[in-house]
Structure formats: structure tokens, C-alpha cells
Specification:
Elements (H helix, E strand, L loop, with lengths): L22 H8 L16 H4 L19 H4 L3 H16 L3 E5 L3 H13 L5 E5 L19 H22 L5 H12 L5 E8 L13 E11 L2 E11 L7 H8 L1
Parallel strand pairs: 1-2
Antiparallel strand pairs: 3-4, 4-5
Length: 250
């Protein structure tokens, strides 16, 4: 397991200095039943170990992934993510690497990097873990006041609304967006985006899209920025040829 708060993926004015760090708590969670045991390793390096010469001169570019959703307001964020992921993969040489679905755009970008750079690792996506009230787990949840946490639950409700809307016969991308945005409008949030995207590119899907998609949302609750998402299935993809699905997704 690697544990590292990566300075490269934080932009100017973001919360690098106060970002929650609890190595002892992380280690306690990792030693629960069925988790780490004898012979397993936790790699928790300092920034000086990962970046011994300071900010690296050569970095990984996120390409098109750096031009949509998360990176519209967090310029350079995914470049920093991919750079540190590549370094950690090289330092630890895993056969398989697990990434959380909550950061779905990161997972898609990492998968593309692994494919484009021929990295010998299998990338697996792990389902988002939620608290009992439905809020997706995030280190930044610690910033929320009780009242803000109540408002933040709207993000989880919006992805459920998107999922339910997509399950209705004949649902279109517009129907899914409308259902999710109606839920988001119920709370006092500063919405950054609420979009239905192609999971391979994270570009917004076309009006007649059929197949798997990701509904992704980002919003500020007070001063805290949170994200959430859900995979949805539009239409019956078995009723369409691969060529038709490709054309519709364009």
C-alpha cells in the first residue's frame, strides 16, 4: 500500500498545507481483519524521497484528460497525479494497482497512461465507499460543519437520481442530467459541473448516446470542494452493434 500526499497535484491557493494527514489512523485501518498481514508493506515516503531534486523537470501530460471536468478549474492537477502515479508504480513495481471510483477521471487517465506507455500493471477500479448517510468517503469531509455535511448529502442523492433516471425505458442523456440537477438544486451548493460523460474519454456524451456512461458532479459546500459520480447504463447496448455504439458516442 502506498500513502502519499502529492504536492504536484495541488494548485495555488488549494489546501496542501492543511490537507488531513493521519498515518497512524491509516495504518490502524490497514491492519483490520483480511487486510495487511505478515510480509505486507506500507510505503509512506516523504516528498523528499519521491522528489529528491524538488519539483521534477519532466512530468507526465494528461493530454485530453487535462482539458475536461476536474481540470477546467484545477489546471495541471491530472499532470501531477499521473506523474506521481508513474513514479510510485516504478518504485513499487506492482502487478496490480487499485484506484477508487470516486476519482473516476483520475482512474480513466491512469488507465490511458498505462496503455499508452506500455506499463506492466493491471489497473483495477474499486467501488466508492460511503458513510451510512450516503456521503462518499473523502479526507476533505473533515472540513465540513454538521450543517454543511447535511447539505453535502445532496451530491450522493444526485448520483442516485442520475442512476435511477438512466434505468427508465427510453431515458436520454438529457433526462439523466435533468434528474440529477433537479436534486442538486434542492441544496445551497456552488455547483462546478454535473455532467454525463463517456468513461473512456470523459467528454460529454452525445444526445443519442447508448451504453455505459459516468455521471460526475463537483460542488463546493461552504469552502469545501467535493466530488462524486456513478456509472449508469443508457438504453439496451445489446440491441446495437459495436459500430452503432461507437457512432452514437461520437
Amino acid at each position: 500500500v502506498t500513502i502519499f500526499v502529492n504536492p504536484l497535484q495541488f494548485g495555488p491557493g488549494e489546501d496542501l498545507d492543511r490537507y488531513p494527514r493521519d498515518l497512524a489512523g491509516d495504518l490502524a485501518l490497514l491492519t483490520g481483519p483480511g487486510l495487511l498481514g505478515a510480509g505486507d508493506v506500507v510505503f509512506a515516503p516523504s516528498p523528499e524521497v519521491v522528489y529528491p531534486d524538488g519539483d521534477p523537470v519532466v512530468r507526465v501530460s494528461a493530454g485530453r484528460f487535462g482539458e475536461v471536468l476536474e481540470t477546467l478549474t484545477r489546471v495541471g492537477h491530472l499532470d501531477g497525479v499521473l506523474t506521481v502515479v508513474l513514479k510510485l508504480l516504478n518504485l513499487t513495481r506492482p502487478d496490480m494497482a487499485m484506484f477508487g471510483q470516486k476519482d473516476a477521471q483520475q482512474v480513466a487517465a491512469v488507465r490511458r497512461m498505462v496503455r499508452d506507455l506500455d506499463l506492466p500493471v493491471d489497473i483495477r477500479e474499486v467501488a466508492t465507499v460511503r458513510d451510512a448517510d450516503g456521503l462518499a468517503l473523502s479526507s476533505r469531509n473533515a472540513y465540513l460543519s454538521p450543517a454543511e455535511r447535511t447539505r453535502a448529502l445532496t451530491l450522493g442523492r444526485s448520483v442516485l437520481a442520475a442512476h435511477d433516471a438512466a434505468d427508465r425505458p427510453g431515458a436520454t442523456p438529457a433526462d439523466v442530467r435533468a434528474a440529477a440537477r433537479a436534486e442538486l438544486a434542492r441544496a445551497d451548493l456552488e455547483l462546478e459541473y454535473a455532467e454525463l460523460v463517456d468513461p473512456a474519454t470523459f467528454q460529454a456524451v452525445a444526445d443519442r448516446f447508448v451504453g455505459p456512461a459516468v455521471f460526475a458532479v463537483a460542488a463546493r459546500v461552504g469552502a469545501t470542494r467535493l466530488i462524486d459520480n456513478a456509472w449508469v447504463m443508457l438504453g439496451d447496448p445489446t440491441a446495437h452493434t459495436e459500430t452503432e455504439r461507437t457512432e452514437v458516442s461520437r
